[in-house]
Amino acid sequence: MTEGQARQGNSTTSVLGRRLGGELLKLRTAAGLTQGDAGRVLTSSGAKVAKMEGGWVPIRDPDIRALCELYGVRDIGVVGGLLELARVDRERRKAKGWWDDYSMSGVVQEYVALENAATAIKAWEPGYLPGLLQTPEYVRAMRRTPMSVLTEESQPDDEFVESRLARQRRLHEEPLLVLQAVIYEAALRNIPGGEATAKAQFEELLRAAELPNVTLRVFPFSSGTHQGLNGPFSIMSFGEPGAMDVVYMDSLFVRRWVEGGEDAAAYDVLFEKIAVHSFDERESVVLLDKLRKEL
């Protein structure tokens, strides 16, 4: 779903709300029930159930339990996953975070807020380094490239760098974000800003690779081509990985969410295939150190 599809008049859905609502819709459909059937169990209307399934309203725990009972869902893991996603969504809707003080576009602010709420992220980057691992010099150089005008961002340089560094605190402060990053070799051999920027950036990557919550791998040229070269994507987990994931894709002109289902699962399969054909952690560190020394 794109940013524009997340609004109707003055109402706004949330990514996690749509993810949760989609799961409830799938369970209701599998049970052969209508929104009216679900509404009666909640002593409400089918219209309210439609809003819940569309992600337009936060959902209370008693309502989730009642709907799971109606739909015949007895799996504790499934129910627990829905409850956890609902909790994170409720907290996200009412919380004011540091990102609210920055002039980010709506979809970027939504991503940053969810990144802050996530427990784990799998990131594939074919062209640039993951934002969570970029140095200030890298960020500034990237924004000064001639092609940067094609991806207009309203934030001034200093504010953009500050917000990028604020995001990176999740890798160092409790609760630690677990990051699995796979970077295409091309992104390492084409560092914005040239040698001066590259040395500090490689040193930062090597430091990050030593963190217990960071797994860093390089997909080398020698491993050939694959579908992931079409663009970067991030898989965000908010509980047990895989159960309630959402996928974010940041292409040149369109930013898009994939909110669960078979499509999100396909991205997870693709990420794992890319990782399998990448250098392992030790080999990746060896390459990073080699590139640093060659400068």
Secondary structure elements and pairings:
Layout: E1 7-8, E2 11-12, H1 15-31, H2 35-41, H3 46-53, H4 61-70, H5 76-94, H6 106-117, E3 120-125, H7 136-144, H8 157-168, E4 178-184, H9 185-188, H10 195-209, E5 214-219, E6 233-237, E7 246-250, E8 255-258, H11 261-276, H12 281-293
Parallel strand pairs: 3-4, 4-5
Antiparallel strand pairs: 1-2, 3-6, 6-7, 7-8
Helix pairs in contact: 1-4, 1-5, 2-3, 4-5, 7-8, 10-12
Describe the structure.
The protein is an alpha/beta fold and 295 residues long. The protein has 2 domains: 11-94, 434 Repressor (Amino-terminal Domain) (Orthogonal Bundle), CATH 1.10.260.40; 98-293, Endonuclease, Chain A. Helices cover 48% and strands 13% of the residues. The protein has 12 helices and 8 strands. The strands form 2 sheets. It has a 6-stranded mixed β-sheet with strand order 5-4-3-6-7-8, with helices on both faces. A hairpin with a 2-residue loop joins strand 1 (7-8) and strand 2. Helix 2 packs across helix 3 (46-53) and helix 10 (195-209) runs antiparallel to helix 12. The longest helix is centred in the first third of the chain and has 19 residues, at 76-94. The relative contact order is 0.13. Residues 1-5 and 7-11 have low confidence and may be disordered.
